[in-house]
Amino acid sequence: MTRFGYTLMTEQSTPKELVQQAVSAERSGFDFAVSSDHFSPWLTSQGHAPYAWSVLGAVAQATSRMDLMTYVTCPTVRYHPAVIAQKAATMQLLSDGRFTLGLGSGENLNEHVVGKGWPGIDTRQDMLVEAVQIIRELFTGSLVDWHGEHFKVSSARIWDLPEQPVAIGVAVSGTELVDRLAVLADHMIAVEPNGELVKAWHHARRPATGLADAGRVVGQIPICWDPDRDAAIKRAHEQFRWFAGGWPVNAELSTPAGFAAATQFVRPEDVASNIPCGPDLDAIVEQVSAFWKAGFTDVALVQIGHGTHDEFFAKAAEPLLEKLRAAD
Hints:
By secondary structure, the chain is an alpha/beta fold.
């Protein structure tokens, strides 16, 4: 059975609102919650970007059942992988074993702020692979010295380690990175319901490693539930049209102004054709079903729009989950 999650989208809510959303999501019956990890919103109309790890620490204390996950953290530029390993281990302890570390190669929007520049895609992928290797080493509790192509670690040790190891998920968009990361990570993350990518992950993980467990495959889909469909389309266009560029474009732009300029000709009807908008729960189920049909085991829903979440949880979350589980 597919597991359904809720996205704590840091770009559109305050820290305390995100914690309350997590509490509401758990109460409504969501299986897990994922958090974005951004220094900046995609568009100024979203208006927020609190520190995801502080939010997740609070969420770990405010909830008791849901699994938690970063979706995703870039461990290469803004954060050093040794710092990520320490944060992830602490989160696993705070959440009593409910945490998964989701990692990806990042976006210029969030990583350029530390003034180290933005590497090309091949370098970013190499850095991600090396970062995962370092994090794995530190999760052993050993004293780690590392002198790699991109990172150095000097006499580092994680002193507070959970009994239950932190699982690692990696975001991929092409089969080349799948082959490299399947032997290092536990789970795959992707934003499109690409069945060929899922098959490639299974192929790389099972025959190459001899592992019987192919891990989980975690996807994410934006929705814009609202009793008024026109209002939903307007809001989705104002706050989520950045999504239209696709990840090859989204990874390169450096500011919300850049995203606004790149998507200035995206129309509301263009957004509505890709994102289910309005009160029709069956339309949302239809869109989500593409993920489980492609072999995804987990799907997180993004409810678009600051200030809409209380009504979503009060009126739509539970019946939507019932429909999703009945259709799966």
